[in-house]
Fold:
Amino acid sequence: MKPVTVYIETYGCQMNKLDSEYVAAVLAGSGYTLVSGYAGADVILLNTCGVRDNAEQRIHGRVGELSSLRRGKPELLFGIIGCMAQRLGEKLLSDVVRIVAGPDSYRKLPDMIEQALSGQVFDTILDREETYEGIEPVRCSGTSAWVAVMRGCDNFCSYCVVPYTRGRERSIPVKRIIGETARLRDSGFREITLLGQNVNSYRDGDVDFAGLLDRVADTGIGWIRFLTSHPKDLTEDILGVMARRSNICNHLHLPVQSGSDRILTAMNRKYTISEYKGLINRAREMVGGINISTDLIFGFPGETEDDFRATIGLMETVRFDFAFMYRYSEREGTKASLLPDKVPEEIRIERLKEAIALQNSIMRGRNREHIGSVFVVLVKGTSKDNHGWYGFTETNIPVVFYARDETVNIGSFVNVRIDETTGATLMGTCV
Structure:
């Protein structure tokens, strides 16, 4: 009997979440019904991340949990798709997992589901031409949307599997991005995030990323964000557009990964700490009130105590508004996995804990500086206690606020006075 309902469970980054929206569109276009929970599904697809080992271990555990559903429904089909699927391929196939599909194989999923009724099927062929043109994602929200501007990556950072799991870099034509943004605007979306592994290297003919930002801003959509920027490709033109266009949010996510030049060289990051600090200073000079977040890895092979202290020093100097911090996770097939002088796991954990404590202190201090200020907030939903609302500032800080005005609703922009902070979250009142 042909399966008719599909449940998609997504792990990992924003690009994975957008890919799940593409998958939903592909399957809906072939007659499948998307369901919000696994209980009513004929097919369960896990869209996976392969960047860190713990992400993959979660998937193995999740397959074990969900496999019990087959006791009462033996015809239930399981599939693993995304980056982990691309990395491990047919190794993931089992009595439970019948479908394995990489990030460039989603158009084939309807046929793969049909084939899985009679046996295992996998497709992990990378396609440099695939950008899912002609497929309109099934949006999970009516307020904020992700818009892909490029796929793949050419940077080959020594610790990263992305060039191997998502293929080489390719930019999506400007015309397509502008058309998609305009449709979102006309459908009532208030905010978009332009996505790419390295948006700064975007190029369509003579249009670079600064030019793309300018054109997207011309659509008049409320707020525009972008992820992720690579320091080696961040230009003054990009910062200039951010400063000039009022609907481009003054938030910059600029991963540094380490505060040590020696480790950055081993990571193949192609910039120095001096250059990175120069970018931060220039961004703060050019873009008023800019919020800067980053990524940091602790315990990279060969990282000494001095290297670690250099990273701590960088954090104290720059005072990031937010930081995503991880202990190094070895990925098979990357150059870093072959490096000597592995840092013991317990030291990686100790360094990560110290860095988290420092960053939390910095973030609390920076957020306390906002008390008494008024921010424009995009409303995303009701607060956990259902007595208020939550949303995000233009600088991407979460805000919980209370309002007497009953006209506040999801998707509206409101002015909020900040009264206090819990550390990571601002608390306020609609004014």
Q: What stands out?
A: The mean pLDDT is 96. DSSP finds twelve helices and 21 strands in the chain. Residues 330 and 337 are 6 Å apart (CA to CA).
